[in-house]
Write a structure and sequence with these properties.
Largest sheet: 8 strands, mixed
Radius of gyration: 25 Å
Number of helices: 21
Number of strands: 25
Structural class: alpha/beta
Strand content: 15-25%
Helix content: 25-40%
Distance between the termini: 66 Å
Length: 588
């Protein structure tokens, strides 16, 4: 059958793939709880019946505040089958953002994971107009539970009416409102239709060489369109979906599940690589020599069969001695890792691919449902330092000022209740103005060079692209994060967040007693080490781009503390306000 609406994936799955017991799987109390397709569809239909009994009709908004778990999929499909609009909300946002999104989206019912999340929002619910009731997924006394809605559905089964509601949903109807976490101002509600998302899924499907015998591990938030679309992709290919317990347990879950693929953001790959390097430094002398020989070899890897015979022979040795152990850490079955959401350091693409862990970098944004371009599995489908060729069905052109413009069936309907903002983003010819700067090379590969709004001019009239500088400096094992600034100032400066794990190991190696992060960063010897790193990486840049002054931070930037968005991007405005006194002293 043809897939034209998101929920068409369920009957398509029933028609296309052989039965298996792990279509969806989540871990509870240390055990994997698995669902076959029949149980999955049964629960989805009962959720739809329950929502119908509650009076939900086409166009109504239903919100979810959940982590990654099978119930997310069940609610997602159950909501959309009725013609209602799913509003997934990050579990990690601020109280003010919860209040804004719940009011702005006009949700009628909210499904919350459990007690901890309920505590974050229950006291603001009386201020939310239109919310009729709240359900939890984990049982909590005094609050309705998802099982009650399912039971309501069982006692109000109306297959004829549900089929009628489903047939009334057109491909171009609104399917979901996704609120961008935003780095400034209020979140924006991106309106995506069924066709927006389905077109993206079907285009990506052509480049993923996996089948119904494959498994995927999911850990990125499902309320982010990147992971969500990949979940639909897995369903369209019959791939089993296993939900990681948490970021902290990803390593354990990779070894248990042995996935064929997973989707990630560069930050996780950076941390994995740094841990691998740190372990390598602790090896006995001879093993350490072999380890870093393999690393140096991996960093010279060339895609597209461009490596020499001698190189390939050396790589076979490196694979047997070193890289095979990396693959075991990834579950020893990994075929494909897709990276998106931010720029991936080129060296990581090279070394992981050399190690037999193929990393495909892609580019997109929520407003494009989300993929605009992505590298592919073909021999000539990867070019390091780029985000691949433009996706089939999508058109890209570069504006005179270097901004990337995109057009296609994946481009959003607009911003909810924000017609003026929509006009600013999508011009009269239908081109989405991405806000990113880049270019297409002679082979059609897209390269991102920065964010248009982030490029600043110094008081001397020189333009500085902070993201290029930040990404280069983060190659240092000592630097976890970095914010470059200097608009209308005489020079570029930075706030630097150390990789405290690496700093501790370095101190241990140098026999320096480690007390607290705050105390360590002011030690003269530590200051001298960071000056060495800044001097080293400044050599890659011209005079106007060099970091002339900087401050090393005494704490990590996190989502919970507000410095990072839920999609792990820096909230630049928040950070600048948080460290206003520090920044003023840098430029004084």
């Amino acid at each position: 059958m043809e897939i034209t609406r998101i929920f068409d994936l369920l009957p398509y799955y029933l028609e296309t793939f052989e039965p298996k017991d792990d279509v969806l799987a989540g871990k509870e109390d240390g055990k994997w709880i698995k669902y076959d397709i029949n149980k999955y569809v049964e629960i989805v239909n009962n959720i739809s019946y329950g929502l119908m009994a509650l009076g939900i009709k086409k166009g109504d908004k239903v919100g979810t505040i959940l982590g990654n778990r099978p119930e997310w999929n069940m609610l997602d499909m159950g909501i959309m089958q009725t013609g209602a609009v799913h509003v997934p909300i990050y579990p990690t946002i601020s109280e003010s953002d919860y209040k804004y999104i719940l009011n702005h989206s006009e949700v009628k019912y909210v499904f919350i994971e459990g007690k901890e999340l309920l505590k974050k929002v229950e006291h603001i619910l009386p201020e939310i107009q239109g919310v009729k009731d709240v359900y939890t997924i984990n049982k909590h006394e005094g609050v309705k539970h998802l099982s009650e809605l399912i039971e309501l559905g069982k006692t109000n089964e109306n297959e004829t009416k549900l089929k009628s509601l489903m047939s009334d949903v057109a491909p171009n109807d609104l399917a979901t409102l996704i609120y961008t976490s935003g780095t400034t101002g209020n979140p924006k509600g991106v309106m995506l239709s069924h066709n927006n998302i389905v077109s993206n899924v079907l285009a990506i499907r052509e480049i993923v060489p996996l089948d119904q015998n494959s498994r995927a591990l999911s850990y990125l938030p499902l309320c982010h369109v990147f992971e969500r679309v990949l979940i639909y992709l897995y369903a369209s290919l019959g791939i089993s979906i296993y939900y990681a317990e948490s970021i902290a347990k990803i390593a354990d879950n990779l070894r248990e599940v042995k996935p064929d693929m997973f989707v990630t953001v560069p930050r996780l790959l950076e941390k994995i690589y740094d841990k691998i390097i740190d372990k390598g430094r602790k090896l006995p002398f001879l093993k350490k020599m072999i380890f870093f020989w393999a690393i140096r070899l991996g960093l010279k890897f060339k895609p597209g069969g461009a490596n020499s015979c001698i190189y390939r022979f050396k790589l076979k040795i490196a694979n047997k001695l070193i890289f095979s152990k990396w693959r075991v850490a990834f579950g020893d079955n990994i075929k494909l890792v897709v990276s998106g959401g931010a720029a991936l350091q080129e060296r990581l693409s090279r070394v992981f691919t050399a190690a037999g862990i193929k990393v495909l970098e892609g580019y997109g944004l929520t407003e494009a449902s989300p993929v605009i371009s992505v590298c592919t599995m073909e021999e000539d489908g990867v070019k390091f330092g780029t985000v691949g060729p433009v996706l089939t069905g999508v058109t890209v052109k570069i504006a005179e000022d270097g901004e990337i413009l995109a057009k296609g069936p994946n481009i959003m309907l607009g911003y909810f209740k924000e017609p003026e903002l929509t006009k600013e983003s999508i011009d009269n010819a239908g081109w989405l103005h991405t806000g990113d700067i880049g270019h297409l090379d002679e082979e059609g590969f897209l390269k991102i060079t920065g964010r248009k709004k982030l490029i600043f001019k110094t008081s001397l009239g020189k333009y500085v692209n902070p993201q290029i500088i930040e990404n280069k400096f983060k190659e240092s094992p000592f630097i976890d994060n970095m914010l470059v600034m200097g608009e209308n100032q005489k020079f570029a400066a930075a706030l630097i967040v150390p990789s405290f794990d690496h700093l501790k190991q370095w101190c241990e190696y140098k026999e320096i007693e480690y007390t607290t992060n705050e105390e360590m960063i002011v030690l003269p010897r530590i200051k001298k080490r960071f000056l060495k790193e800044v001097t080293k990486y400044n050599e890659y840049f011209g005079k106007a781009e060099k970091i002339m002054k900087y401050e090393v931070m005494g704490k990590e930037w996190t989502v919970d503390n507000g410095e990072l968005s839920a999609s792990m991007k820096m909230k630049r405005k928040f950070i600048c306000e948080e460290y206003r006194e520090v920044i003023d002293s840098i430029f004084s």
